[in-house]
Amino acid sequence: MTLTVSGLHAGYGGGTVLHGVDLQVEEGTALAVLGRNGAGKTTLVHTIAGLLRARQGTVVLDDTNLTGRPAHKVARAGVGLVPQGRRVFASLTVAEHLQLSRRSGEWTVPKVLELLPRLGERLRNKGNQLSGGEAQMLAIARALLTQPRLLLLDEPCEGLAVELAARVRAVVAELSRGGLTVLLVEQQPEHALAVADHVALLSDGRVVATHTADELRAAPHLTDQVLSVTTHA
Ligand SMILES: Nc1ncnc2c1ncn2[C@@H]1O[C@H](COP(=O)(O)OP(=O)(O)OP(=O)(O)O)[C@@H](O)[C@H]1O
């Protein structure tokens, strides 16, 4: 599925965070949106997922206009979300999480456990007994069981040890190679470049440039301006 976001404006209360975001993710490719703290990455993901209402602009998946649809309808249209912070329930076991997320389709529990074997060893463990990496794998498993055609991931490597972050990146890259359309938001170029075909640079709620991953590898300074740290009041 191809995702096309055009002129997207969104915000909270009186404040606008997204000021006309334009981006496209071609079917079966991965786009990383790279931006510093507060650039609007989570706001973008939530607006695409229908958790936040767009004030202007459109979100279109293939020929289906998702703009203004509530989150459960966006999910049913084929959009899976791996939220920031994993959002795992402390008192439910891994097996219970998987059962709750399951919808019929290509992704079955055995298939998900084949991709994420560590979860298979933790089926009886509760959410609060999982490591950060295991919780992230569970968040990915839950999203896959909703049978997405487009997967949104909000900083999936955040807070993970180096090895676990590498494992999460490998899983996302494998999903993308398997034909899933992927949009992930990231603060760290190394995570973005390990997974993405294209990288969009988000600054103050606008996409200011889009590069291929190869272009950014060859010219890493291109991210300096959008990632440079500014002092927040
Ligand atoms: N629920 C909310 N109500 C009001 N303002 C919010 C809310 N959520 C986010 N914001 C503000 O919107 C702006 C963008 O936040 P957003 O979470 O989208 O950024 P981000 O790029 O994802 O940052 P981070 O890397 O810290 O997650 C910030 O100024 C933030 O304070």
Automatic annotation (TrEMBL):
InterPro entries in UniProt: AAA+_ATPase, ABC_transporter-like_ATP-bd, ABC_transporter-like_CS, BCAA_Transport_ATP-bd_LivF, P-loop_NTPase
Highest taxon in the source lineage: Bacteria
Keyword vocabulary terms for this entry: Amino-acid transport, ATP-binding, Nucleotide-binding, Transport
A GO biological-process term: L-amino acid transport
Boundaries of every ABC transporter domain copy: 3-229
Keyword Nucleotide-binding appears in the UniProt entry: yes
GO molecular function annotation: ATP binding; ATP hydrolysis activity; branched-chain amino acid transmembrane transporter activity
Signal peptide: none
Family: Belongs to the ABC transporter superfamily.
Stated name of the protein: ABC transporter ATP-binding protein
Originating organism: Dactylosporangium sucinum
